[in-house]
Amino acid sequence: MILKDLIQSISQVIEDKIPEKYLVKFQEILLASRIFTVASQILAQLILVVFILLIVFTISSLIFSFDLIISIVFAIAIPPSLLTGFIIIKSEQRAEEIEKASPDFLRQLASMLRVGMSFENALDELSKYGSGPMYDEIKRAVVEIKMGREFNESIQAMVSRLKSENLERTFKIILEARKSGGGLADIIDAVSEDLRAIIVLKRERRSSVMMAVLFLVISAVIAAPFALGMVGIYSSFMTSLGKGSELIETSKIAAGSYIVIHSILAGLIIGLVMYGNFKRGIKFSIPLTIVAYGIFFIISNFGSLILNF
Fold first, then answer.
1. Which whole-number Å values give the CA distances from 121 to 128, 130, 145, 152, in the listed order?
2. Closest by alpha carbon to 109, among 131, 97, 127, 126?
3. Among 182, 206, 230, where does a domain finish?
4. DSSP secondary structure letter of residue 307
5. What is the domain extent for residue 163?
6. Is 72 contained in some domain?
7. 141, 155 Cβ separation under 8 angstroms
8. Is residue 81, in this structure, part of any structural domain at all?
9. Are residues 184 and 121 in the same domain?
10. Does residue 156 share a domain with residue 201?
11. Can you spell out the DSSP letters for 20-62?
């Protein structure tokens, strides 16, 4: 009960201090990721988790003689990174669901147009019986049209919410065909088949590059952390012999920095290999960086104990 009241209080402060337009934008991102929680409460929970981690990491750094600055950076960076990664993953899952459902949706739309229904009525009819994020957006577009919003504007707004380049091109073709008055049903059928072929090609590409992705993951979370973790073990060994120096301590920091940079780049390359887009690699970079640095941190700080140095 106390925790709930505390989150509510922090949430109220956030709503008072942060401009509404930013909260609304963040709320849209959460809804697009199928996270149905008030934006200010998500931020309040995030702040609370960061505060708790700051206390835990600070105490741990004092007990185990860890670097206090690194502990504070990790306490501040881990919760937002995990939240960002979770939002990206949920958004991409939603986008994939929409793309998988779109060929069948377009085929049904073409069938309804062939029996004489208008485009608006066909959309309305489909929105009543379908389920999933694709049909949710169709329902929203239909409601906006009924409330007086211009048809093309509603469809374009829906496409921007879908966040799919393939569907954006698809609906542009459909709107242009509708404007020109051509055989709309045939065009939609053709577009549906093309979209289905694109989805199949994407699956095949992902399957064909899995070995390369596995190699990048192993190098990021196993090879590099274990190899560079030996720098920490060497540093502890030299310190135990009374031969520690600033250069040895600096090399440990440099090794940790390399692990972070290497993991981020590995994640971005995985995104490029699997999706042809660096940005989509962010969802891989975040967990790879956390896991890789965690392994490096454990080896460099506790490896000497295991080897009895």
1. 11, 15, 11, 15
2. 126
3. 206
4. T
5. 95-206
6. no
7. yes
8. no
9. yes
10. yes
11. HHHHHHHHHHHHHTT--S-HHHHHHHHHHHHHHHHHHHHHHHH
- CATH number of the structural domain spanning residue 113: 1.20.81.30
Task: Sort 219 into a burial class: Cβ within 10 Å, 0-12 / 13-18 / 19+.
Answer: middle
* Total domain count, the chain: 3
CA 89 – CA 34 distance, rounded (Å): 11
The type of residue at 120 is E
Kindly write down the DSSP assignment for every residue of 186-242, as one continuous string. HHHHHHHHHHHHHHHHHHHHHHHTHHHHHHHHHIIIIIHHHHHHHHHHHHHHHHHTT
199 and 245 belong to one structural domain: no
User: One digit per residue, pLDDT tens: the chain, 309 residues?
Assistant: 677 778 888 888 888 888 888 888 888 888 777 788 888 888 888 888 889 888 888 888 777 766 777 778 888 888 888 888 888 888 878 878 888 888 888 888 888 888 878 777 888 888 777 777 788 888 888 888 888 888 788 888 887 777 777 778 888 888 887 777 667 788 888 888 888 888 888 777 777 778 888 888 888 888 888 888 777 676 666 666 666 566 666 777 778 888 888 888 888 888 888 877 777 788 888 888 888 888 888 877 776 565 554
Domain contains 86: no
| 180/102 same-domain check | yes
Token reading at 121: 């009525």
Q: How many angstroms separate the Cα of 22 from the Cα of each of 17, 98, 257, 268?
A: 11, 26, 33, 27
Q: How far apart are CA 88 and CA 62, in angstroms?
A: 35
Tell which residue, 163, 170, 175, 162, has the closest CA to residue 189. Answer: 170
Residues 182 and 244 in one domain: no
